[in-house]
Every structure is written in C-alpha cells, then in structure tokens.
Specification:
Elements lengths: L2 H11 L4 E5 L2 E4 H12 L9 E5 L4 H12 L3 E4 L6 H11 L3 E5 H11 L5 E5 L5 E5 L11 E6 L9 E5 H15 L6 E4 L6 H12 L3 E4 L5 H8 L5 E4 L1 H7 L3 H7 L5 E4 L6 H10 L4 E6 L9 E2 L5 H4 L5 E2 L3 E6 L12 E7 L5 E2 L3 H7 E2 L2 E10 L5 E6 L4 E3 L2 E3 L1 H11 L2 E11 L3 E10 L5 H11 L9 E3 L13 H13 L2
Parallel strand pairs: 1-11, 3-4, 3-5, 5-6, 10-11, 10-12, 12-13, 13-14, 26-27
Antiparallel strand pairs: 1-2, 6-7, 8-9, 9-19, 14-15, 15-16, 17-18, 18-21, 20-21, 21-22, 23-24, 25-26
C-alpha cells in the first residue's frame, strides 16, 4: 500500500483530524488529500517518469511529494541545503527531465537553473499549479521504483537510493511498532524531510493516522514553542539535542509533556542521555540506527536499556534481520569483529543507474552497511567505525577525500588534508591542513569554503604544513593525517 493511500483512507474515516501543522496553520486529512489530488492531476499524462522536487522543508513539500507518488511517477527530492553545483551534479547523474518546484524555489534558483528540464511545473502557496513547459518522454525505470533519496553528499555526487512502495510501507510500519505511534501522537519534524530520517517521520505518522508538526532549527525560541505545542514524540540527531540542552530551563519546560525523544543520524553519547534525564526524568529516550539504503531505520535501543547500552545500536527493528559477517561472508559469533549486514522488506532496490555500486552493497539479499561491528552476548550490536573513511557531521555523512579534491582543484594550493575534530554541538567538524603553493592565502581558502561548501563543512581552522603526513610505511591515511595534525597543534 502506498503512503499516500493511507492519507486517502484517513480522509474518509477521520476527515477532520489534523494531519500536518506548520506555524499557525494546520491542515486536516480531508484537505490534505484534496490538495494532493489537485497537484497530482497535473502529472497524470506522465507514465512512471522521474520528477525532481525542489521545495522548502514544509507542508508544501509534503503535498508535492505525495502528489508525485499518487500520480504513479517517481519522486526525486532535491536537498535544498546542498549548493547549487551539487544539485546540478545530482540532476545530471539522475537523468531527470521533469521538475516540480514551489514558486519560492523557482524564484530563488532563477530561470537559468531550469533550462535543463523538458517539463517545469510550479506550485504556488495556495497549491494551485502552473505548467511552464511540458515535454512527455518515455522512460524505462524499475517498475517498483517510487522514491529516490540521496545520501548526504558533499562536493561529489551522492548516490541515489531507489526505494519502492514496499520499502516505504515496511519501514513506516516497523517504526510505528517501535515507537508505539497512534493516531493521537504528534511528531516534531525539525530536520530535513529530503533525507531518509525526515522522510521516515512523515511516513510513519501519516501511516498511523497521527500528525506531524513541521518546523526547523533556525530559531531556538520557535523550536521550543513547537515542542511545547502538544508534541508527543520529538525527533532529532545528536547535535539537535546538544543545541537544545544549552537552554536547560527551556528544555525542561518544553519537554514536560513529551513522551519520547527519538534520535538517529549518529550515536547518542552518555553525556546527552545524562543531561536529558536530569531535566526530563520521565522522558523516554529511544536511540535508533539506520541508513538511507534501509529506507531509514535498521535498529533501535529499547528505552529501558539506554543507561547500560547507549554505546550500542541495540537490536533489529521488527521485520529486519541484522548480522555481522566476516570477510568470507559467514556469520560471526559474539565479540567477533566483522561487517554489519541487514536484510528485510525495507532494504533498497539499489542505486539509481549504478548497477556496479548496487552489486557491491547488496550481496545475496544482504545489505552490507560498511560499518564494522560486533554482536554482544545479549544480541545487541556495537558499532566500531566505518570500513571506509567517511566522517559523520551532524546528520550528514561526508567524504573527506571529495572535500580535499574540490578545494585543491579550485584554489592555489599544493595539497589539502581534511582532519575530523571535536565539535561541541555537531559532534564532529573539520579542520584543514594545507601544503601551500605560491599565492596561497588562508582568508581566500576560508572565503572559498564559505561560498562553495555547505555550512557544516566550513573548516574550524586552516593550518599550513610543509610536508606530506606520511605513516611509517610511507602512505597517507586517516590515521597519519590525524597524527600530523596533533603534532602540529602540540608545537604551536
């Protein structure tokens, strides 16, 4: 069953129940269903075609997303927090001919950005639509494909994760069971809905007939007002909680009537858990773990075990099987390090237009997560880091090599090295070590980063070095880069 079909069902059964809230506005299931139908009517001439969605993170985005799905086409949400050149790389790689945008985003990006599309549809604030250009083309897509979500990318092209209706419904139903979501629950959406975590919040609450309160983290006062507006389940990445905990009195008041604080996008450390429990002792803390390739969630840590096992990801969500495989793809026993793998109805179809990458990640029906892990004797799983060298910043997973390459190609430098460093709110940030060339200037590098990279990738500092950070065997690695950075800092 498609997610938008649940909206239609509740529009019939409980038409006046609130589905979405944003600011001072709210929309019932009946009105939401009508608005989705109105937008979908503009897309009915297309036959399972790819539609990029360019919309701000609000109710309007949710309407457009559901309308593309209802019209039996394929939704490809564009993360609007990405720089324009990253979006253009996504569009080039995804071979998208059609786009549906809000009038706000159409004005923001300008007509030149839209010249690449054969079909352009603009949706106004009152949900009326205008077709600026229409070009029907036959596309050959996976018949099960419904949604393409992009992993949090940096300067390279992030992978497009192909998801089916079965993937979306299975994951929503699993999350409903874990969080015990009912039609009486209101979830807080203050993270990007264009990524897997945000998308899963929308899907699970609408599938359960509940409501979603949409906001953002731009203004701390409005976030606390949102939490105190009757929200029963709050969702955030660890950095979300770090930010909110800087205001203990507000936190205590706002979370007084919240039932559950759910997290994903990185591990909840003991300090966060301790601080939350001191301010809101009755608040249930429920950490979750997942990947975009799993439609969002794979595991959760039961609230009663958070104190003792917060350094684990807990156990598989309903409908998912987790295991740890050794290098021979055999199940490893407890306390043996291997790669975390998963199987279930929520596992992606594959990567869009990339069979080679798909074959590397899905082997014999198992998703290979790339995370090193160990099974504990009680069945819980402890992560031990990545098989590769990706860095987790907030709810974004970034590739340091791509950042380095982008800076090197666009600046007068010899070499650039990204160093993961501690950040009090995001958990991790980056610093740069640079081997300068003639004309290298630190301020120019800072300026380039501010203009060309997302804000969370702007370096905390830039240090000049005069040699390659080589290990004892003469190779450059994450470890050798970090060790060189520590040496430089110690000598300053």
């Amino acid at each position: 069953m498609q997610i938008d079909a649940y909206i239609t069902e509740y529009a019939r059964k409980t038409p006046q129940n609130i589905a979405l809230e944003e600011g001072k506005s709210s929309i019932s299931y009946s009105c939401l269903d009508n608005d989705i139908n109105a937008i979908a009517s503009l897309l009915m001439d297309f036959n399972h075609c790819r539609f990029a969605i360019l919309a701000e993170s609000g109710v309007q985005y949710i309407k457009v997303l559901m309308a593309v799905c209802r019209s039996a086409n394929i939704a490809i949400p564009l993360p609007i927090e990405f720089p324009k050149f990253s979006l253009e790389k996504i569009l080039d790689a995804a071979h998208v001919n059609n786009i549906i945008a809000t009038d706000t985003q159409y004005s923001r990006f300008g007509e030149h950005f839209f010249e690449r599309f054969g079909t352009i549809i603009v949706i106004s604030s009152d949900t009326s639509g205008k077709i600026l250009r229409k070009k029907l083309e036959t596309e050959t897509n996976d018949p099960e494909l419904r949604l393409v979500l992009y992993t949090s990318g940096t300067t390279g092209t992030p992978k497009g994760v192909m998801l089916s209706d079965r993937n979306l419904a299975a994951n929503a139903e699993s999350i409903i069971k874990v969080l015990r979501i009912t039609s009486r629950d209101k979830g807080a959406l203050v993270i990007s809905p264009h990524h897997a975590f945000g998308n899963s919040i929308i899907n699970s609450h609408l599938t359960a007939g509940g409501s979603v309160r949409v906001g953002n983290m731009n203004f701390i006062g409005s976030v606390f007002n949102l939490i105190g507006s009757g929200v029963s389940i709050f969702y955030g990445v660890p950095s979300t909680y770090r930010i909110l905990l800087r205001y203990p009195d507000r936190f205590k008041r706002a979370f007084a009537n919240v039932r559950t604080a759910a997290s994903a996008g990185g591990g909840m450390d003991r300090t966060i858990v301790k601080d939350i429990k001191e301010l809101a002792p009755d608040l249930e803390i429920l950490p979750m773990y997942g990947q975009t390739e799993a439609t969002a969630r794979l595991a959760y840590l039961p609230a009663e075990d958070v104190d003792e096992f917060v350094d684990t990801i807990g156990k598989a969500i309903p409908g998912v099987i987790l295991d740890v495989f050794d290098s021979e793809y055999r199940s490893a026993g407890p306390n043996i390090t291997g790669e975390l793998v998963a199987t279930g109805d929520n596992i992606m179809l594959g990567y869009l237009d990339d069979e080679i990458a798909t074959e590397k990640r899905i082997i014999n029906g198992w998703l290979h997560t790339g995370d090193l892990a160990r099974k504990l004797p009680n069945g819980y799983v402890r992560l031990l880091g990545r098989k590769d060298d990706l860095i987790k910043i907030g709810d974004h997973r970034v590739n340091p090599r791509e950042i380095e390459r982008n800076i090197e190609e666009n600046n007068e430098v010899s070499r650039v090295f990204v160093v993961p460093v501690y950040h009090e709110l995001m958990g991790t940030a980056i610093s740069l070590m640079v081997i300068p060339a003639e004309g290298t200037e630190i301020e120019k590098l800072f300026s380039f980063c501010r203009k060309s990279l997302p804000g969370y990738l702007c370096p905390r500092e830039i240090l000049f070095i005069d040699h390659l950070p080589l290990s004892e065997n003469g190779k450059i690695s994450n470890r050798s880069i970090i060790e060189e950075y520590q040496h430089v800092k110690a000598s300053m």
